[in-house]
Amino acid sequence: MSHAFARRTCALAVCALVSTMLVPAVSAQSGWSKFKQRVLEQACKGGDQNSCQQLAKMKQGQQGQQSQQQQSQPGQPAQTGAAPQQYSEPAAASPQDNSGPFKPPAGTKVEEVVLAPLQTNAKFFISPHGAHVATLENSGSRAVLYYDGVPGPKFDEILGGNAGDPNVFHVAFSPDGKRYGYCGRSGSEMAVMIDGKELLRTSESWQGRFDARSCEIGFTSNSEHVYLISAASRSSSLGQTFTRFFFDGKPAPPSYNPNGNSVAPVFSPDGNHYAFIATDPADQHRWALIIDGKAAPYLGGSPQWSGDSQHLYTTIEHQGPAGYMEAMIDGRPFIKADRVVLHVPPAGTMVVAEIYAFRGANASRPLEFLAIGGKKIPGTEIVTQGGPRIDQIVFSPDGKHVAARFTTAQNSEYVFLDGKRGQEYQTLDHIAFTADSSRIVYTAFTNGKPYVVIGDQESDPCFAASGVAASQYGGLMIAPVGSHAGTVCGLTGGAPALYMDGKMLRVPDGGDGASDLFFSPDGQHYAYRAHYRGGGNRLVVDGTTQKNSNLPQGAMGGMQFVFSPDSQHIAVYSQPPNPNGQYASGVLLDGKYVPSVATPMFFRLEFTADSKHIAWAQPVPSQHAFRVYMDGKPVAEAETAIDPNSREAWWDMAPDGSLSFIGQDDNNLKRITITPSPGINVATLLGGSAAGNQGN
Q1: What's 53's DSSP letter?
Q2: pLDDT category of residue 212 using cuts at 50, 70 and 90
Q3: In terms of pLDDT, which residue wins out, 288 or 257?
Q4: 147, 330, 375, 413: which one has the fewest Cβ atoms less than 10 Å from its Cβ?
Q5: For position 597, what pLDDT does the model report?
Q6: DSSP state of 491
Q7: What is the rounded CA–CA span in Å between residue 538 and residue 558?
Q8: What average pLDDT does the segment 495-516 reach?
Q9: What is the mean pLDDT of residues 54-65?
Q10: Is 54 helix (H, G, I), strand (E, B) or coil?
Q11: Distance between CA 627 and CA 619 in Å, rounded?
């Protein structure tokens, strides 16, 4: 997504939250305090006695702080009393103003890199990793693309493109975020720029002009190869309209395309090979299978690469009254049938064929069945009256197991897994495997009630609750490693529960609801939000309620809590466990509440890649800015260049444990990189020594 530089007075989401808060501040001169004081004064005049009391306390606190500051030595911080006690809320743990100056902890390294000067209506594009930025700006009357602050060559026009959205200008980034590409027009030629260097130059245009159809750039999955899809048309006559495909700058044979639509390359999983169907621009009845830039010695359509990237599967249809289809591997037929659809797993060499028999002896009773390696799987044959009866063919991650949904003549459904027929339901959906390929999971509905099946265990009535993270599997959550899977059960009329690994688990401590189920990176731990009567929300980890958690309703949704990459820590944005009527907030880290500067929300909350530090970003009151904290200490601040609540990669944790993010000042867009101080880390927040965390 592109962005236009714009100075906004306040992010809407933050303003809406801030305007509803009653926050007694400590600093008499801060914008936060003045805002709060005005709110309390208005409420007090309206007869709200509680607001009158809070206003009196605020003024007393301001007078005390002014007196204390007068007694402090120049250049020394004012003494504010004893350190806060855990889980109680003395004055030092009250909301603080974070709009004043600060100094990062000793040993913290803060580096700023100017990425581009600010220009009105300039557009910028962020890489998926590494916080690299490409900015489209003007240099006089010419167009220039800046990449990480370095200008590229000047062009009459910069085209740019991305295979996912060819009709809108984009800079194409590689999956690892380290490479980029775009196109620039100079006169009657187009130059393709990759990583700041010209890869190729062409004069093939679309009827005399270059546009988005001329420059669809993409990178393969391993980020090592770049491809270009470019539509060209000299005229509307035969042979003069085609699409050209380039791989690492080398052209493949052109393909006829009367409307400028692109070819559809299929890339191998390792990113090193490609295949597509090309139609001869001079003769639309002639076509070829192109493999790695050359026409194959055989014809084959619907190309699919094997999971190991070593073989290419294709099919070809032979026309005529007795027509048939063949399935081939590297051009060698291995199945012949009336109709064949191939399904290739993500790993291994297995291929499953969906075979239809509807000619000859099967004309009055058409059949459908599955085959592996050309051999029918016993028990999969089913009559296809009314249409296909086999769908949702799903492979396990290791490519060794296959499951499919079958529909009977009575329109009931069941799963067929590894040669075995499962139990029938009225409907079933969302078939998937656990990460270690050991168990199948799916949702089902029958006799008016929903169910979840994990392995060979069926839940009590359980409607899998939807959520952002679980939406791919219809409410089911699958651990990223191992065999664990589960869901929050909802809309069943019974006691709130989870269904985890084939067992029904009640929400502890009398909870009346749950949401936002997540697994740790190693798949060995799970956490969710438990709801209690009266509006309370607490964090539950591995079935145990975290008593010191006090989660605000709705804030940051399911991303409120995060596990560390090593799965040894969990953190969540939380209000104080024992609120005293004053607005306050902090972090619950491994069950310990750590007070912080009061904020309505965190923009981000994340552990560093080495799991030794925790960082978050929160809004600065009365400013269109955010402040970044590392291990509870402020380390950097910047004006927002991108909506901090967006999912764009404006914030990136590097493997070395550093954090980079995108911000701006009055003059420039910039990248700020934080290398944390070795003197503070997660261990120090938990009351231990910094050295105690070094081995994690």
Answers
A1: H
A2: confident
A3: 288
A4: 375
A5: 87
A6: S
A7: 13
A8: 89
A9: 60
A10: helix
A11: 6
| pLDDT score, position 454 | 96
d(CA 115, CA 245): 32
pLDDT of residue 691: 60
Q: What is the Cα–Cα distance from 415 to 417, expressed in whole angstroms?
A: 6
Amino acid at 346: P
How many other C-beta atoms can be found within 10 angstroms of the C-beta atom of residue 405?
20
Residue 334: CB atoms within 10 A of its CB come to 14
251-288 in b/e burial notation, b at 16+ Cβ within 10 A? ebbbbbbeebebbebebbbebebbbbbbbbbeeeeebb
Is the predicted pLDDT of residue 341 greater than 50, yes or no? yes
Q: What is the mean pLDDT of residues 624-641?
A: 93
- Tell me what the mean pLDDT of segment 302-330 comes to: 94
Tens of pLDDT, residue by residue over 122-158, are 788 999 999 999 998 888 899 999 999 899 999 999 9
DSSP tag of 127: -
Q: Report the distance separating Cα 300 and Cα 326, nearest Å.
A: 9
CA dist., res. 51 & res. 27, Å (int): 19
Q: Which amino acid is at 187?
A: G
Q: How far is CA 215 from the centre of its chain?
A: 26
- Average the pLDDT over 33-59 and give the result: 53
The token pair that represents 32 in the structure block: 């936060």
Instruction: Report d(CA 509, CA 553) in Å as an integer.
Output: 18
User: How high is the mean pLDDT of the chain?
Assistant: 83
Instruction: Measure the CA–CA gap between 561 and 517, rounded to whole angstroms.
Output: 10
The share of the chain scoring above pLDDT 70, in percent, equals 79
| Dist CA 32 CA 360 (whole Å) | 82
HEC profile of 575-621: CCCCCCCCCCEEEEECCEEEEECCCCCCCEEEECCCCCCEEEEEECC
**Residue indicated by tokens 């939406």:** 471
CA distance 456 to 471: 23
Inform me whether the pLDDT recorded for 100 exceeds 60. Answer: yes
Contact 550, 532 (CB under 8 A): no
Rounded to an integer, the average pLDDT of 220-249 is 88
Is 455:446 a contact under the CB 8 Å cutoff?
no
Write the DSSP symbol of residue 479. Answer: -
Structural contact between residues 333 and 372, judged by C-beta atoms closer than 8 angstroms: no
DSSP code of residue 262: P
- Confidence band, pLDDT 50/70/90 cuts, at residue 507: very high
d(CA 552, CA 20): 14
Q: Which amino acid is it at 59?
A: K
Which of 19-23, 550-554, 623-627 has the lowest average pLDDT? 19-23
Q: How far apart are CA 45 and CA 12, in angstroms?
A: 28
The number of beta carbons lying within 10 Å of the beta carbon of residue 457 is 13
Using a 10 angstrom Cβ sphere, with 0-12 exposed, 13-18 middle and 19 or more buried, the burial of residue 136 is: buried
Q: Residue 219 and residue 240: Cα distance in Å, rounded?
A: 28
Distance of CA 222 to the CA centre of its chain: 19
What Cα–Cα distance (Å) separates residue 535 from each residue in 283, 409, 552? 70, 49, 9
Compute CA distances 444 → 259, 390, 404, 423, 693, whole Å: 44, 16, 14, 10, 46
Instruction: Tell me the C-alpha distance between 669 and 460, whole Å.
Output: 54
- Smallest Cα–Cα separation from 415: which of 429, 399, 397, 395? 429
- What's the rounded Cα separation, in Å, for the pair 573 and 556? 9
Q: What is the mean pLDDT of residues 375-386?
A: 89
With both helix axes pointing from N to C terminus, report the angle between 31-45 and 49-71 in degrees, rounded to the nearest 10. Answer: 150
Whole-Å CA distances, 202 to 168, 191, 196? 21, 7, 17
Which is higher by pLDDT, 65 or 237?
237
